[in-house]
Amino acid sequence: MATTLKYYSVICLAFSFMQINQAVGQNSDALKKAQTTNKTVQVYTQDEAVVKATIEQFLIVAGNYNLDAMAEMMSDKANLATARLRDGKWTTETMFMSEYFEAAKNRTNRPYFEPVKEYTIHISDGHLAFVKADAVLHAFGVPLLNNIDYFTLIKENEVWKFINISFTSTRIPEAERIYDPMVFAKSYAQAWCSQNPDFVALFYAEDGSLNINNGIPSVGRTAIATDAKAFMDAFPEDMVVAFDSLVKTPYGTEFHWTLTGTNTGPNGTGKKVKISGFELWQLDENGLIKESKGTFDAEEYSRQIKYGSDN
Asked: Within a 13 Å sphere around the CA of 54, how many CA atoms are in the beta-carbon half?
């Protein structure tokens, strides 16, 4: 465990999802469009940008089933409404978010990744936000559901809180469920910040292996989950790892990342770390990781743990 932690605790594969667009314009109800040479770019007001970032954060913690983080984003008595089309029949359900959290604690959950293709945002007098988000729900790189999400938020003490979450959900036809390695990589990144090591292990084949800097490989999901837990315990607070790129090579697929975070776990130094590296993947026929070989500068990492990335 100690050896694994030494070599692996820099690989928190997560999103830098909290970057908020710079505020532009004065009318909080206006969604302006700025023309570029090849495409139209949405330009958001300050409130719109903050609301969008809040929703993106929510979709990440929801995909990780981080129920505590989700609950902190809710207003009192926030509610959930769903309408699902399954086998030609629509079903609907409503509940308080507190009821959803209790039900989620008592079932087996699997991670999902739900990127939004398009936002429509309306801010009312700077205090209420109404958002439509056209999204696709993926599991392990495969698109499964078309979701049209509707969010209503209220500003409480200058913080946007959810008061309603509603969505319609329809299944993507089997012929269109095409594995996307880029989405798989982003989903894997998200799972590394779930504080649920079993979620990380699910991205590996049952007999998959993880080897960092030519150390002793961890083989099988149980061993991989053990290593993931050691890492999550070491960087429990402000870890962010940017997904830099996914590169196809003759030797496999390289997943490149950059970690920033503070080593505040057990026996942590409290020093900030910023370091880059990559994993070389061999994927199986299902698109899961059969073998991962991670590489980073362990000497530089150790130096930053002791002195910090700024020194």
From this structure: 23
